[in-house]
Write a structure and sequence with these properties.
There is one protein chain. The chain is built from 8 helices and 7 strands; from the N terminus they run H-H-H-E-H-H-E-E-H-E-E-H-H-E-E. The protein is α+β, with helices and mostly antiparallel strands. It has 2 domains: 64 residues; 150 residues, 2-Layer Sandwich (Heat Shock Protein 90). Strands 2-4-5-7-6 form a 5-stranded mixed β-sheet. It has a two-stranded antiparallel sheet with strand order 1-3. Strand 4 and strand 5 form a beta hairpin. The protein is extended.
Length: 297
Amino acid sequence: MFLIVMAIFAIYAVIFILFEDFDRRRLNAFDEVSDWHLLLFSVVVMIGLGFLLYRYAKRMDQRITSEQEQKNSQLRRELTQNIAHELKTPVASILGYSETLLENPDIEPDIAHKFIVRTHEQASRLTSLLQDISLLNKMEYAAQDLEMSRVNVSLLVADIISESEHSFEARQMTVKNCMPQDVNVTGNTALLYSVFRNIIDNAINYAGDNTTIEITARKSTHYWDIEISDNGKGVPDELISRIFERFFTVDKGRSKSLGGTGLGLAIVKNAVLLHGGMVSAKNIPTGGLAVSITLKI
């Protein structure tokens, strides 16, 4: 910025000195002392204004940096508070059930078994939560360490559908996998698995029984456009813009009962962005939710 301003004022000074008025049609050398004085004055003004602009730009950079640091600090505080809040419930449950078992060695076997099962469920939820937090941190702070390779997304999605067959049957859901067989992208296999696993799991858990999940993919010049849609309940319009936020759930009670961590779609968003793509969600007018993903070919 400073050099650009100096160059502009230098050009201005030369033109102003060489052309004493607008009627002159030829260039003359500096034949008067006043010309040199005017040139010196212009140079001083140029340096002064350039210095002021430099100071202004520097202060603006410092202000922007400070505001960004404050914003990041606020986000970290909120994230820490959210993590602490989410960890508190399973930890408290584990402590409560275990203390009851320890303090009552003669407790009835059926009740003891029930407490052990619930303790295991909460421990599993706690493990999932810690794994999701670790994955998010890895994407944000160690993305350069992720191994990238050629990934066949078609096979990846087919494997997830096969793994989820029992869940589809339990909810009497139908899956229409309309993806072509050659959906290949460059990416991290584990992260891409998490992307489609989380979206499909969300559809299984929240679309409702007797619904249909449809998966399609369309190839453009540089991207694969992949859509996973269902004809279920959808998401309230006022909340749909928030579903990719960390720890945000539309139905908190149902999410916890299903063992959800509230981080699934946040992982989806971060992973897709890390692969240079985009993700969005919209309600379908006839009912249901459609999640669209673009991934570089």
